[in-house]
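cron nightly-structures :: item 1 of 1
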Amino acid sequence: MSKAVLSIGTTHPWNIAGVGLDACVVREHGMRPLTVIAAVSAQDAAGVHAVHAIPTEVLVAELDAIPDVAAVRVGAVGDEWNARAVTWWLERRAVPVVIDPVMNATLGGRLADTATIAALLPAASRAGAVLTPNAEEASILTGTTIASVGDMHTAAEDLRSRGIRNVLIKGHLTATDDVVDVLAYAQGVKEFHGRRLPQSMRGTGCTIAAALACALAADYEIVEAVERARRYVRAKIAAQTTFENLNVAF
């Protein structure tokens, strides 16, 4: 039987982000996708039009229905109470978890406030957890400006000093078009470099988080897991093979 990877998060009608995209990524890794819906969104090419958080008691019932899994990916969970319920559930399971502190949609629209993200952070302090903010989200979480790779190091180390086990800050673009991700983990800080690709793709944050969860489910240690997840998402961008690409005419 293939390993199962759980995605806890928000729907997207086009499945180019959120739990629908996660399910596609997990299947492409040869694993079984499981989903728990924490919120429902109305989104399209113009951005987010509405978000409705699932009642917490329903979310808890969904979580109670989940069997053993090999890893968990957490995205936008709707509100602070749902975040607390997810954290409580995760603290009772010894599996790797990737927490993506999604605050805003790429094309505009709020998906979470700082109180909601703060309620998720305790789960990032458990063994096997990885927090995956982009540079903007890391800036909000640390209250600092991130304008350089050095700033990414500082922010990642700041978050680790708060007890978060592993921090992957994604996507700083240097003046030379070198895209840098920074990982702070027990052995120190490591940079991952790649040339900016000419293509673009929606849902890259969800894609790399879900791919990272799959790599951790396959028992790769953190550096190799990040490298595998980055290769996967870069191949997707290069091929422009989103599962529901915005360029597709409906």
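cron nightly-structures :: done
The mean pLDDT is 89.
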